[in-house]
Amino acid sequence: GHYTSDSASIAAPQHNFTIGSLSCTVAAMRCSHLVHMCSSSNMRPLADESIDLVVTSPPYPMIEMWDESFVSGDPKIAGLLEAGDGAGAFARMHDQLDAVWRECVRVLRPGGFICINIGDATRTLGSSFRLYSNHARVVTGLESLGMRSLPLVLWRKQTNAPNKFMGSGMLPAGAYVTLEHEYILIFRKGDKRLFDGEGAARRRASAIFWEERNQWFSDVWDFKGARQPLPANEARSRSAAFPLELAHRLVNMYSLHGDCVLDPFLGTGTTAAACALNGRNSVGFEQSGELAPVIRETVAAMNRTANRLVAERLAAHRRFLREYEERRGEPPRHINSACGFPVVTGQERELQLLGLTDLREEKIEVNDDDTPRCDTLRFTAAHTAVDAEFEARALFDAEDGQRSLFDIDR
């Protein structure tokens, strides 16, 4: 009635640099990553107020590629679409998302954040063309649950198609603006989060660089030209998964080392990968069982690339320091205690970047009287702080001219 299995380490190739031999300033930290392969409309495994941050991108109502997903949850939607009742279908699709948002609010701690990437939809049903404002409906839904809206981010996703305009082309009074952006909606549960002694210390260690703050807290993001270090596969393309950089920013902006991050629409696993990269715990829900091997592949990619990405982040800061000194004639006056390099503000003095020393998948122990209602994947990651000995390798590919993931536009 009870089974166990030894954990199997995800294979990782050797790198030119290691992190296990560093002289570290803090003890190693272990994080857990759980993936429940079932619907998030009832997140029974999660206790009330157990999550610090939600980062997700749901299926977009009234985008045709997601019709099947919504119809499987509510067959009446198919009839509404067939009858040309776009408003009715739109409302019922968002009813399904509302059930997930209620659960997110239930499990979120006071002061925690919900970050939702969503795009609006344009669609013709019969002879009627219109916009379906998904972002406005999500705001209405979350605010009705007591969440407070905060300034949002526009994620610009340009298309280079020469025929990207819609409607009558060059003739006036019949053409439509092309949507080239999506929204990242930011909500907070109640007042600002409070930090005790231990939490305050973790908060200082979780600080971001001054130059990162200036870019990340802008209200327009553009990732054009940035590398996507996660595996390229059909599932990522079909699901329109957001890039790792998006999740990486949100995780660092709105959570601390050791916090727990939830993604109720995990998809290909990008949020879990961002948490494995940044020393956060994570929980994900994904009802499409066929994505389980893709999620494994996405998380495993951090074993191959996490330390390189951390090194890129360090190198981007060093480039910033060189340009800062060239402009001002002297380096910043504060010193980061872990790595010994200058930083612009006193809040960065205790900033600690984390390296990944181990990442593995573990089998779930199951009792007959407590059988999970859905398959669950579990990964564990071990992290340790990096210091000045952590050297970057292969930080910029001059041949293809792409920015490194963490290179800052200045």
Short account of what is shown:
The protein is built from 10 helices and 19 strands. It is an alpha/beta fold.
Features:
single chain, 410 residues, alpha/beta, eleven-stranded mixed sheet, two-stranded antiparallel ribbon, 10 helices, disordered N terminus
Characterise the protein shown here.
The chain is α/β, with parallel strands linked by helices. Helix content is 31%, strand content 23%. The protein contains 10 helices and 19 strands. A hairpin with a 2-residue loop joins strand 6 and strand 7. The longest helix is centred in the last third of the chain and has 37 residues. The radius of gyration is 22 Å and the shape is globular. The N terminus is likely disordered.
Task: Give the SSE map.
Layout: E1 2-3, E2 8-9, E3 29-36, E4 51-56, H1 67-73, H2 76-82, H3 86-107, E5 108-118, E6 121-125, E7 128-132, H4 134-144, E8 148-156, E9 166-167, E10 175-176, E11 181-188, H5 197-205, H6 210-216, E12 220-221, H7 234-239, H8 244-254, E13 260-263, H9 270-278, E14 281-285, H10 292-328, E15 334-335, E16 342-343, E17 354-362, E18 366-367, E19 376-385
Helix pairs in contact: 2-3, 3-4, 8-9, 9-10
